[in-house]
Amino acid sequence: MSVIATLVVGADGSTTINGSSAQVTSKADRENFLKRRRLVDCIVIGGNTARNEPYSKTPVALVVVSRQMHPNLPAAHVWNMDPIDALKRAQQEFGKNILVEGGAKFISYLLDHEVIDTLELSLTAANGGSDIFDFKKYLPLAKKIDEKIIDETTFYTARFMPT
């Protein structure tokens, strides 16, 4: 079983500017993001992410954890349940390798409940956004952290569960 969360944050922890991650991300992050999602069985996102990010086409099954339907994502599985239960159900229905691409609150909730095995965090120079993710709180909790810098983006792989 493997649950990987991925998130791009600006230097101040912001994950969105004007409601989207488009101004926070970098070219290097985008390339890494697209590669990673082809290696999993299912992508899980929250309702806010579904409303604000382009998810009309994904390479694998898409689960939206939300209290609302999302008509702009007709192929998505929309589940009104706790995110932790949704991860378990996704693994049962689609396979053991789950990628969480939710926002700051969604991923923080899952990290606080210790159900994330690995956090793939991309740190860019962006500032002044919103939906702050407290990466300085979560990175020190990892059992192991790998770091690499590509074109002014710092990539952290923080492992929370033994591999």
Tell me the layout of helices and strands.
Elements: E1 2-9, E2 14-16, H1 27-36, E3 42-46, H2 47-52, E4 61-65, E5 77-79, H3 83-94, E6 97-100, H4 104-112, E7 118-123, E8 130-132, H5 135-138, E9 144-150, E10 153-159
Parallel strand pairs: 1-6, 1-7, 3-4, 3-6, 4-5
Antiparallel strand pairs: 2-8, 7-10, 9-10
Give the biggest sheet: 8 strands, mixed
| Biggest sheet strand line-up | 5-4-3-6-1-7-10-9
Tally of DSSP helical segments: 5
Query: Could you state the order of secondary-structure elements as H and E?
Result: EEHEHEEHEHEEHEE
Give the CATH level 1 class.
Alpha Beta
Name its key features.
5 helices, 163 residues, alpha/beta, two-stranded antiparallel ribbon, Dihydrofolate Reductase, subunit A
